[in-house]
Design goal:
Helices cover 37% and strands 23% of the residues. It is α/β, with parallel strands linked by helices and 260 residues long. The chain has two domains: 182 residues, Rossmann fold (3-Layer(aba) Sandwich); 68 residues, no CATH class. The strands form two sheets. The chain has a six-stranded mixed β-sheet with strand order 6-7-8-3-9-10, sandwiched between helices. The longest helix is centred in the last third of the chain and has 21 residues.
Length: 260
């Protein structure tokens, strides 16, 4: 048990079921411990982003329980969820930056409601956060001046401004070139090690999964057909996992042949 009497796991799904026009999550159970990273993988439309929506409290399960920050949030009110969202933040695939604000102003936006900093302290924090993600040199640029990868890194800096305990990443390397994808993976790993962040990464990128994740959940048609250590995924005998991994190996061979 945790110190507050709740579950030990920082995030946990217990037999979560969610249906829209069809079952999207079907009896899904998994957990993430403090300071660890879980990757959620699988094809499009299998419930990966829906899982993140439940963690943030944007969605509620039809049945089952969702625990976040050692707390049962399943039936929480919006006011109660706002307290949880101060501990858990999300980096959206789009970056969700304000195009009318500079990079520095985008990061500053997350600090505006905080009373523990005066103006100069906030400016120093912005500089520190941008330096942490190696983007201090683009402080005065606008999001439209940046590549997709840089926008994602700025979004991560803005998320960190809230001093979260946990970060949820939604497809952080989608539509990003291989070099920037590797850079983002290195950044996520560095933040995990330096700040002790708990994190969940929804991704199709198995290279990213292998780099940053401790455990992985494979979703197929809303069911968790594998949940366990990343190192054991290759041993999974489920045909859809084997097919997914085989397709990834084909893509790797194709990339090598393109270089040669």
């Amino acid at each position: 048990m945790a110190a507050n009497g709740s579950l030990t796991h920082y995030i946990e799904f217990k037999n979560v079921y969610k249906e829209f026009d069809r079952p999207v999550l079907n009896d899904v159970s998994f957990y993430v411990d403090t300071g660890k990273t879980l990757a959620i993988i699988g094809r499009s439309g299998v419930g990966k982003s829906v899982s993140l929506g439940h963690i943030m409290g944007f969605l509620k399960p039809d049945s089952g329980q969702v625990f976040v920050a050692h707390t049962d949030i399943t039936n929480m009110s919006e006011a109660e969820l706002r307290k949880i969202r101060k501990k858990v933040t999300m980096v959206f695939q789009s970056g969700a930056l304000f195009d009318s604000l500079t990079v520095g102003e985008n990061v500053l936006f997350s600090l505006e409601l905080r009373e523990d900093y005066d103006y100069q302290n906030k400016e120093d924090v912005v500089d520190g956060l941008l330096a942490m993600v190696d983007l201090l040199h683009v402080r005065d640029l606008f999001p439209t001046d940046l590549s997709t990868g840089y926008k994602r890194a700025v979004a991560i800096a803005r998320a960190l401004a809230a001093q979260p305990e946990c970060v949820l990443y939604d497809e952080p390397t989608t539509m990003v070139d291989p070099i920037m994808s590797d850079d983002l993976g290195n950044l996520m790993l560095r933040l995990k090690r330096q700040l002790g962040l708990t994190s969940i990464v929804v991704t199709h990128d198995l290279d990213l999964m292998r780099k940053v994740a401790d455990s992985v959940m494979f979703l197929y048609k809303g069911e968790a057909i594998y949940f366990g250590p990343v190192s054991e995924l290759e041993k999974c005998e489920h045909p859809h996992v084997k097919q997914f991994l085989a397709m990834d190996r084909v893509e790797i061979v194709g990339k090598i042949e393109d270089v040669m």
